[in-house]
């Protein structure tokens, strides 16, 4: 029996004036999570597209400080009031007290989970979204994560681990330089490339376990029932040639693609 197909697109990064392409489901519900790293340039755009906005602990500091920096022509106080997170969640070891007080006074829901030291702040936020966001069809949910890349390497690996722990949920890790998401082995994958904003460099990485068979189309150097593993071949520094990349694999893979400045 053929595997079901899953479609992926970075159309959420297109300018607000650009109509979404037909392959980008208008029914997609976006949730935004901000972690404790510098905000990328497109943070205001994604904030406006999200139905729910969460800051993971020190991510609230980044929004408080960073949004006015990204919008220098506007009054900082007005910017901070406009970009108010719906929820701040985590173990609260990084958020500054004055930032917590500021958002709490604006009505932000503060959820202290300092009792839970077994999961990361991103894990806590994704659990909250998948459990509490009132969406009738969770298959149309996409969680966009800012600040998951850069900084400490163990934090980066912990964030990539969240992709595996929530493999049935679409989660995209974003920085100014690239996007990363999981391609579960339970599906074939069709990745629609938005060439105005992403590429051409890309990679397919078998972090969870080795792949004994991965096949692609749309790449400069396609894979044909190829084995990949650490200590062997890993498809890094590949190039997107087509408008659509297809991937089929017997293991979960991480897909990454560069973002244009």
TrEMBL record:
Stretches assigned to the Thiamin pyrophosphokinase thiamin-binding domain: 187-253
NADP as UniProt keyword: no
Chief place where the protein resides: cytoplasm
Compartments, as annotated in UniProt: Cytoplasm, Cytosol
Pathway note: Cofactor biosynthesis; thiamine diphosphate biosynthesis; thiamine diphosphate from thiamine: step 1/1
Enzyme Commission designation: 2.7.6.2
GO cellular component, one term: cytosol
Keyword Metal-binding: no
InterPro entries in alphabetical order: Thi_PPkinase, Thiamin_pyrophosphokinase_euk, Thiamin_PyroPKinase_B1-bd, TPK_B1-bd_sf, TPK_catalytic, TPK_catalytic_sf
Record GO terms (molecular function): ATP binding; kinase activity; thiamine binding; thiamine diphosphokinase activity
Catalytic activity, reaction form: thiamine + ATP = thiamine diphosphate + AMP + H(+)
Keywords: ATP-binding, Cytoplasm, Kinase, Nucleotide-binding, Transferase
Pfam family, one: TPK_B1_binding
Function: Catalyzes the phosphorylation of thiamine to thiamine pyrophosphate (TPP). TPP is an active cofactor for enzymes involved in glycolysis and energy production. Plant leaves require high levels of TPP for photosynthesis and carbohydrate metabolism.
Similarity comment: Belongs to the thiamine pyrophosphokinase family.
NCBIfam families per record: thi_PPkinase
The protein, known as: Thiamine pyrophosphokinase
Taxonomic source organism: Urochloa decumbens
Source species taxonomy: Eukaryota, Viridiplantae, Streptophyta, Embryophyta, Tracheophyta
